[in-house]
Amino acid sequence: GQNIDQPTEMTATEGAIVQINCTYQTSGFNGLFWYQQHAGEAPTFLSYNVLDGLEEKGRFSSFLSRSKGYSYLLLKELQMKDSASYLCAVRDRGGGATNKLIFGTGTLLAVQP
Amino acid sequence: NAGVTQTPKFRVLKTGQSMTLLCAQDMNHEYMYWYRQDPGMGLRLIHYSVGEGTTAKGEVPDGYNVSRLKKQNFLLGLESAAPSQTSVYFCASSPIGRGTDTQYFGPGTRLTVL
To answer: Nearest to residue A95, comparing CAs of A51, A3, A31?
Structure first.
């Protein structure tokens, strides 16, 4: 079967660092995406990993371990505007033929002053 | 460049009514998708299309139909709405899935079925 697990909610303090974990079990793997979704808005792309290791993009970094079926999103120097849901998604085994994504249920992050 | 647009933004239907949701993209993307998002369920794929004139079923296709007569448009139809179809519907488009080719989402349609 296909399954993607993320914590439902997390709380962190402004200026701190938070790590959001994602574990996956899918029939195939062709890349992992992280999206950010503010309340009432559309998901927007944050990061992409296909090889093991860390990808850094400003305050956001994403890590992947394919052998463990594990990824995390690291947010540094948290700001109030980072309060949002963070969605982990795995590209389906169809890969480029369909570019279908399998989404986790998302992690709702609340940043407190 | 408007990206992905959806109409309408909000709609209230009575059980048994029908409606069509319109998605349009101006990025010349080949692939388009319809999702529904419910609390605690995440985004679930309803139908998708890999090109003009082609459609395929996703994870939760029952009760919905789609058409892609033009490359830039993807229509989602509800023939006989049910309360279980109350949800937020997102359309997305993407280039062919190489590397970082991601999906781009529209702003969503909030549908309530009474």
So the answer is: A31
Q: How many degrees, rounded to 5, is the angle at CA A94 between CA A89 and CA A99? A: 55
Nearest to A96 among B4, B42, B96 (CB): B96
Burial of A43 (0-12, 13-18, 19+ CB in 10 A): buried
- Nearest residue, CB atoms, A91 vs list B97, B104, B107: B97
Given CB atoms, is A104 within the 8 Å cutoff of chain B?
yes
Quote the tokens at residue A109: 């992050």
* pLDDT computed for residue A96 by the predictor: 63
- The position carrying tokens 């004139």 is B53
Strand bridging mode A9-13 / A107-112: parallel
- How close does chain A come to B89, measured CA to CA in Å? 10
pLDDT higher than 70, residue B102: yes
**Residue range B74-87, pLDDT digits in tens:** 999 999 999 999 99
At CB < 8 Å, which residues of chain B contact A?
4, 31, 33, 40-45, 48, 50, 56, 58, 90, 94-108
Q: Which of B33, B37, B55, B101 to mutate to test the interface with A (most CBs of A within 10 A)?
A: B37
Distance from CA of B98 to the nearest CA of A (A): 6
